[in-house]
Design goal:
The complex is a heterodimer. Chain A has no helices and 11 strands. By secondary structure, chain A is an all-beta fold. Chain A is globular. The chains are: A mainly beta, B mainly beta.
Amino acid sequence: QQQVKQSPQSLIVQKGGIPIINCAYENTAFDYFPWYQQFPGKGPALLIAIRPDVSEKKEGRFTISFNKSAKQFSLHIMDSQPGDSATYFCAASLQTGANNLFFGTGTRLTVIP
Amino acid sequence: GAGVSQSPSNKVTEKGKDVELRCDPISGHTALYWYRQSLGQGLEFLIYFQGNSAPDKSGLPSDRFSAERTGGSVSTLTIQRTQQEDSAVYLCASSLALGGYIQYFGAGTRLSVL
């Protein structure tokens, strides 16, 4: 059973556009929601993360919006650049215990110059 | 080292052979995780270590998979009698400790079983 569902599978935007990637989770006990960015041939790298006690977090051009009642969260990339072209994974975890990450299936973003 | 190191970066093997994948975590990181990334899938959690101990092995896909960690540092993931469905990228991550710490990933080992 996929604990975290992610959409869309792929996304193409023009430079300067605002791609939005959406995720939904099942387990209401999850208390940590990171987004990872992965370039070809590299491992995922943490981009930004949020905890469920806040509804929004911004770091530079990246914003997470979090809706606890709907069990959904999303990533917005402002003023997207060709260098943002990568695969983005949302994830969720329980910070007590193992803290292993449950990942979404990924979104391949292409930003056209 | 500066980051999580995994070797080999690529491994091609024949069905039925055993393979060993190695992970060198960031120095001082006590927690270590193994994930598998299959084509078109997200990352699937396999196993974690706190120090040299792996308290829960239920995430391993089958009894052909095993993992160990020695000296609180290097970990190896062993797949015995490899099958074609084992073909994937195997990723290792480490964090300072369990709990609310960032997991840092290596570049992975791409395993191809022919």
